[in-house]
From TrEMBL:
Biological processes per GO annotation: inositol biosynthetic process; phosphatidylinositol phosphate biosynthetic process; signal transduction
Primary gene name: IMPA1
Annotated binding of Mg(2+) 2, by residue: D90, D93, D220
Keyword Hydrolase: yes
Name of the featured protein: Inositol-1-monophosphatase
Length: 277
């Protein structure tokens, strides 16, 4: 049977590339930075413009599909995942990087049907890396097949995570103490690229062994999630339970053993779910 979603995926790659071009051009211009949920949660006119461009072109081609977009939700649209084919879009993952011209900025497009990830496209546009993952068909970067690392001994692992955009003292304290606990196990190191999507893609390439974070959103994870699993990795909740796309937290690792070991160290930050009003 022909793959019913392959055409959608090919289209996602095409428009992610176009969006990346717009972002690269915008990096050469002056920016007007606005804030959202905290003084460190930034948005620019380019985030909004790129999301509008992506959603309107997909809608034209697939009018019956549903959409969740970071900036549409910020503008008041509902963030509820149904069984309908849904495009989950982050027009710029790494807006703080974009604002500072720190060269890791990604367009993330995830496609979910019956609440299951079908494909994901993450275009890291400054470094011109197109990551893709299609259920059952593997994950690729610029056409090269991806495979997670084999290191499941945490003491020999390199982890990626972020400090996040919350500046609430208790939240910052828990984030730092989680890093401290993991760091002191000891592990080889911790890195932060500044975008959840690229962090996860780095796990898919084997460059990092695992990524974890709390406080992110479904649009940060929906594109790269299937890239990790198709590269042989796994997704897990930070409690050690099953991954939930709307939970705002994730461990993406090369193996169940490493993910469980990380989950053991993590103190949970209470968060409002993406689909909670
Ligand atoms: Mg964004």
């Amino acid at each position: 049977m022909a793959d019913p979603w392959q055409e959608c995926m090919d289209y996602a790659v095409t428009i992610a590339r176009q969006a990346g071009e717009v972002i690269r051009e915008a990096l050469k211009q002056k920016m007007n930075v606005m804030i959202k949920s905290s003084p460190a949660d930034l948005v620019t006119a380019t985030d909004q413009k790129v999301e509008k461009m992506l959603i309107s072109s997909i809608k034209k081609k697939y009018p019956s599909h549903s959409f969740i977009g970071e900036e549409s939700v910020a503008a008041g649209e509902k963030c509820v995942l149904t069984d309908s084919p849904t495009w989950i879009i982050d027009p710029i993952d790494g807006t703080t990087n974009f604002v500072h011209r720190f060269p890791f900025v990604a367009v993330s497009i995830g496609f979910v049907v019956d609440k299951k990830m079908e494909f994901g496209v993450v275009y890291s546009c400054v470094e011109d890396k197109m990551y893709t993952g299609r259920k059952g068909k593997g994950a690729f970067c610029n056409g090269q097949k991806l495979q997670v690392s084999k290191e499941d001994d945490i003491t020999k692992s390199l982890l990626v995570t972020e400090l996040g955009s919350s500046r609430i003292p208790e939240t910052v304290r828990v984030i730092l103490s989680n890093m401290e606990k993991l760091f002191a196990i000891p592990i080889h190191g911790i890195r932060s690229v500044g975008t959840a999507a690229v962090n996860m893609c780095l796990v898919a390439t084997g460059g990092a062994d695992a990524y974890y974070e709390m406080g992110i959103h479904c649009w940060d994870m929906a594109g790269a999630g299937i890239i990790v699993t198709e590269a042989g990795g796994i997704l897990m909740d930070v409690t050690g339970g099953p991954f939930d796309l709307m939970s705002r937290r994730i461990i993406a690792a090369n193996s169940r053993a490493l993910a469980e070991r990380i989950a053991k160290e993590i103190q949970i930050i209470p968060l409002q779910r993406d689909d909670e009003d």
